[in-house]
Amino acid sequence: MAGRRAPRGVALAFFLVVATLTSAGAAGAASTANADRALDAALVRFTSEDGGPPGIAVMVQRGSEAALHTAGVADIATGRTITMADAMRLASVAKAFSGAAALALVGDGRLTLDTTVGAVRPDLPAAWKAITLAQLLQHTSGIPDFTDSKEFRAALVQSLQVAPPPVGLLSYVADDPLLFTPGSRYKYSNSDNVVIGLMVETTTGQSYADALGPLVYAPLGLAATSLPSTSELPSPYIHGYALEPPSPPDDASMVFSPGWAWASGGIVSTPADANTFVRAYVQGDETTPAMVAAQQKFRAGSSEPPGPGVNSAGLALFRYRTRCGTVYGHTGNTAGFTQFVAASRDGSRSTTVSVNAQITPRDDPTRFKVLRAIYTLAACAALA
Prior knowledge:
Elements (H helix, E strand, L loop, with lengths): L7 H41 L6 E8 L2 E8 L15 E2 L4 H14 L9 H4 L12 H5 L12 H9 L7 H5 L19 H15 L3 H13 L20 E2 L7 E2 L16 E2 L1 H13 L5 H7 L3 E2 L9 E4 L4 E5 L2 E10 L2 E7 L5 E7 L9 H19 L1
Antiparallel strand pairs: 1-2, 1-12, 3-6, 4-5, 7-8, 8-9, 9-10, 10-11, 11-12
Helix pairs in contact: 1-11, 2-7, 2-8
């Protein structure tokens, strides 16, 4: 009844609930702020160290709240800082786009995970004909990596700005035996995604670059992502640099045509679009719930370069178990750029890390160890 005083026990219980919620909210806000501060401090240290990259940008989105954390510069010549709308090369994160395109076609019934290479592309080597789409997506095909070929590397150096057609990329390993029986082992291979791109072309009747529009860009809401045919980057863009001498470092932003990587690494995007992509991709916005479940059956296998924590391989998706929780995504590196994109299982928490230098565990193990720690800090900030 109006004006009636609540019993003392009820009032006390209500007070305790409110106090607990207030305390939890304050603790959560403090945890989030601490995670952001730790990330910001690490970015400043990373770019300030002698020989460090010129710049780094980390997008963190928790729910509807998105923020860009940056240190250093997008362009040494002007001192301009990195923004969410700057173009950049996604490197091997492009493999997730070929995965999204393939799973979209599986979702609408034009392909299945058991569709074989020979059924769609009988022009490719006979040894590959029984390899399935699922094996290509999970890097268990056994097809050798064309980028490991000495002949490929020599051809690249001789013709940086003019790439062969995609089938030409595969020609460097077309006569090589399979590395193992398909499905029996995991081995990361750039060749897998080129084959996927060719299967997408045949299935859709469009070029792979054009097919990405209706299969991936439109469903996932991407407005600033493309697979260009030349090395030109749209302005404004993040300049990518080679960290080796001389000093200042050489600008490697447009050193070779994206056709030399194509479906395995040629995509150009922005921090904002990369973040939008990974949130939608991990949720499976381009395909069906059944395909998402199939995609997220993981086995031992690491992205290249490795992501944070313990890595496991799904279908064109990697799981990263970190000290702060689990995220899903992909990594990449190419001349001038190193990338990491990841999101929580429901896509509500996400992060992207973009560095304007190529940093790999093989060529710069000490600095890559620091970068991998930054990946963890970025994941922790997203999950805070």
